[in-house]
Amino acid sequence: MNVSKLVDNLVQQGVELWVNEDKLGIRSPTGVLTPELKLELTTHKTQIVDYLQEPEQDFATSQGLSVATIGLLIGGCDQNSLTGIKSPIIDPQIMAQKLTVTFRPLPKGYRNDTIIKFRSELKDKLRQQGVTVKTWQQATKDFYYQIALPWINWKPQIKTRVVKSQIHAVIDVDRPASLVTKAKNAIAESIYQLYSRFVARGQKMSIAKIARLIGWAEESVAKYIENPTTTQAIVLSDLDQDFINLQSYQEKIDIGINTLIRTFSEIVIGVSDRQISILNMNLSDSLFAKKEFDKFVGKSLIPKIFVPIAPLLMSRFEVGKYQPAKSDHAVKLVELGHSLADTGLFPPGFKLSQAIARKSYRDIVDTIVNGRTGVSYGFVAYVEPPQYVGDREISAAEWAKLLPVEGLCSDEVRQNHLGRRYLKTRLKTQTLYQQIPDIWLVSSRSGSNKTNLNLETDIVRIGLTNKLLLQLPQGVDLAKADIKPSYDIYVMLAIALSTALYTPELVSNGAPLVHFHGYPSADWFRENEYYFGVEHPSVPCGTYESGVFNYLGISKIGDRAEQKIALASLIEPDHGTNIIASDMNYLIERLKTGCQQKQIELGGKYFSSLAKPAYERKEN
After folding, report:
1. Mean of per-residue pLDDT scores for the chain
2. Distance CA 376, CA 61 (A)
3. How sure is the predictor about 78, in pLDDT bands with cuts at 50, 70 and 90?
4. Domains of the chain: which residue ranges?
5. Which CATH number is associated with domain 314-387+437-617?
6. What residues contact 251, with CB distance under 8 A and at least 6 apart?
């Protein structure tokens, strides 16, 4: 009996499994647990409990918390919201063991020896790291579909091969479009627009439906993907030296976005004889020497395949309203953004309608990004002081009297008779029993201009209690306005919660929090300023895993800092930097000075200066 395959099969079907005090908890969508599966669960219950309790599934931190608990806390999960929530995995070796990829066959006459050699080496490296690599025949299946063309009585049936939805990524080589392909694309696009207007009548179509209408003309690997929400397209291309050497990050955004759109892929890997680059929507400007092949695969590529970039769905929130003009923190956030305008750290990004010419492509991307009309880089937020009810800290004797919380480990989280939850943590060799506060923060909405925020329309308020809360500006017509929370909500909440628990001096009066797609030099940090995270795997934004790593970063800083902390920086490889400070004016001054003195820049220029020990403090 392969317990791992049984558990993975159940998880893929939406079944949630967890262990609480050695008891197996199960929550399942209706109809999934057949009598046969129920029998298997009963028969192998002990093995399943043992499997779920293995260290790789329950990674313990030095602060005494499991990754599973951190994930549930920052995700706002209680016993009523566990369905569909998976425990985060932060070990790339474990990620690799759960991945399956395939390589699309090379086109006839393909002669790029550098990429051919790299492609072969990449297969081997993925297998060595534990990834399952399937042949194209194993990974694909025959697929038949019919399209009905408007006004003419013609319903052609088309046969193709599609990559099965269980495949996490399909890796192809760059295939510049021929004149024939361009002509076919033009015809397919015309058909799609006619169908969208006169048959669908403007209603949204599924990605699969769009793909059926245009897929016959495509040469991109995306045409072979059965389910774009579960399978990523990765393209191998010649290393773009112009992109690497550009000094302007805005120009890099333009080139990077056009490259991703042209190849219609989530990840583009640039290859030369000596270097490897990796590009995704984070536009993180990441470059590896060929001798770092193992690091590139293990620390960068595998995490990006395992946790693709995705926005947090609106359905995860309990939605309400608030009045921004009456929020001191929203007013401060507008001031913060304006004050950072001349740093250049927050480029405007792009609108999907301007960047993507084809309507069919725009409609596919619109579904993937959950209705967002644009993408911007970075965020600004303001964390409100944590909210407590009753004692902020209790004794071990009082902890022993508390009640368990269903779905959470009772050795780590318990609750009192009022339902206030307490967390058992370790800090500087001490065991503490701290109340988990209610967390609130205001942040720039997704796609907004971070340095010119409109108080009435650009700021959302996010809450974390035993669930996720989203408050939108009162008086705004949501049918006309694109007001969505940032991709980085998990990161914001993780930093805010961890700060309240491990470095409370940073957030006791509220705290500004920023994220930009670059790094400060190690020389920028002062004596009471700290950073952490350089050695973390490069998971993308918008994931549990990114939130967990930021939570751990703050907890490590709090545990090891020898004096009062003025500023904490969380480094995200291949993504950027999060910085939280105790005072807004102090943060503004430090960021402006760093940019003026060329100690902070967008892109990856200064990342290597930070790659010393996993934890570092720079003293002046």
Report:
1. 85
2. 33
3. low
4. 100-175+220-306, 314-387+437-617, 393-434
5. 3.40.225.10
6. none
